[in-house]
Amino acid sequence: MKAVIVGGGVGGLTAAVNLQQSGIEASVFEREADLSRAQVGGAFTLYSNAMRPLTEIGLGDTVRETGSVLHRVELRSWQGKVHAARTLEPLEERWQVPSVGMSRTNIHRILTSTIDSGTLTMGKECTGFTQDGDGVNAEFADGSTERGDILIGADGSRSKLRALQFPGFERKYAGYTVWQGIAEDFEHPGIPEDMLVIWYGRGLRLCMYHVGRGRPYWAALYTTEEGGRDPEGASKQIVLELFRGWQEPLESLIESTPDRAISRMDNYGGTPLDHWGTGRETLLGDAAHPTTIDVGQGACQAIEDAAALRRALSEHDDPTQALRTYERRRIDRTSEVMKVAWQVGTVGQWKNPLLARARAVFMGPGWDRHIRKLNAYVD
Asked: Can you give the pTM of this predicted structure?
């Protein structure tokens, strides 16, 4: 069997590793010609539910050694008052592996070094596909085609393959933009390497965790109109002004991040679909279930998808049956994560002072409910 995978992000590459290890030929096509342009977004929290399938394909140790193992979470006010403190032990006990903070660049490097040589082709934009009883043809902007037994659309939140099948689907702007950056050689006792911290203000949040010793990643979320852009070289100063006076070391953290290392993108989610494909084609990752940044599960769910796809294909001789089995097993799970992320984001950006105080009271119980839902999944 041969799988054609459209999209060279974490989901597509993890799918390729899974399929190749199970004896399926896999070819990955990425529309960006420059790999660095496919790595926009800074970092991921690879929670234990994602680390489990990464460990099953032999990458767990490498990921842990490259990133930062996370054991604790604190949810704080902008001034530093701790609203909730939790450990990540419930996830670690359930999945038997820790959670890890990992930069997008490093996880891409690990995955691309694991797939077979020649698997990934850059600068190939998929524009459509056709299928028949024997296979499926992916069509590319340069006029070329690639034939396989199955086609996996892992081309991200702005998926072309999803748009072809579901022309009425629209991503939903979550109401806030996100700046992301990674500081270099920055350590502070207020942000231990094993801790994920989220500071809350009114219409503002900042999430921070390490992705390697001395390399804290941060994401700053700000309620604003869709489509805003920063003048070249101005991102750092804009973020500094937004978070002026917040608990140390936030200003120092932002100041220590090179402006060229700061990216900005609006945050989008979507409405869950009741199926992801027909025949020999399906979707995976954000192409199937675009999820906002708010619970750190976008990449994690894509990694879960890849493992579930491998298992379904191993259970069926008919690839179309395998793809429908994969979808049935994943749609409820990913739909719930999409909904929870949207709710968490809405509450997290509240500006009303009364609502903000109520939010502080319920942060801990809300976190606990989310962890229980993550742990309830059985493939």
From this structure: 0.96
